[in-house]
Write a structure and sequence with these properties.
This protein has four helices and five strands, in the order βαβαβαβαβ. It has about 140 residues and is of the alpha/beta class. The longest helix has 24 residues, at about 50-75.
Length: about 140
């Protein structure tokens, strides 16, 4: 197999759901392929007025973590889930892939805030900065 460890970035958007499907198709070819499922909890500098927003973001991240954990447990491949926290999602994704020894990153073409039909800013930055192969999954069925 041409890849040994895959990182999948997931944010709940339709393209990130497609990224999970693509990962499943690739990983199913070899049960030894390891998978790292990540969700980025983007941190913003916030004052005391935004403390409630921080709680909502943490709650959302924990819900996504539970969803990804269920996916990881159902896989035949070794899989782990990580919540990445920081201000630059692209840097977090690329650094995690590098630290984990991944040789493939799979992510959606755009995230929750993306404009339909365009590559999202995080997807673009990851493809630009990543030293490893990046596979961009588009929403919809291409068959």
């Amino acid at each position: 197999m041409w890849c040994k460890k895959i990182l999948v970035a997931y944010d709940g958007s339709a393209p990130s759901h497609r990224a999970l499907e693509v990962m499943g198709e690739i990983a199913a070819q070899n049960p030894a392929v390891e998978v790292v499922l990540v969700h980025v909890m983007r941190l913003f500098s916030s004052g005391s007025a935004a403390a409630g927003m921080d709680t909502v973001m943490a709650d959302d991240a924990m819900a996504v973590r539970a969803e990804l954990q269920a996916i990881a447990e159902a896989m035949a491949n070794p899989a782990e889930v990580k919540i990445l926290k920081g201000t630059s999602p692209a840097d977090l994704i690329v650094n995690c892939a590098r630290d984990e020894g991944c040789d493939l990153i799979i992510m959606g073409s755009r995230g929750q805030g993306g404009v339909k039909g365009f590559l999202g800013s995080v997807s673009y930055a990851v493809t630009k900065e990543s030293p490893m192969t990046v596979l961009i999954a588009k929403e919809g069925d291409c068959r």
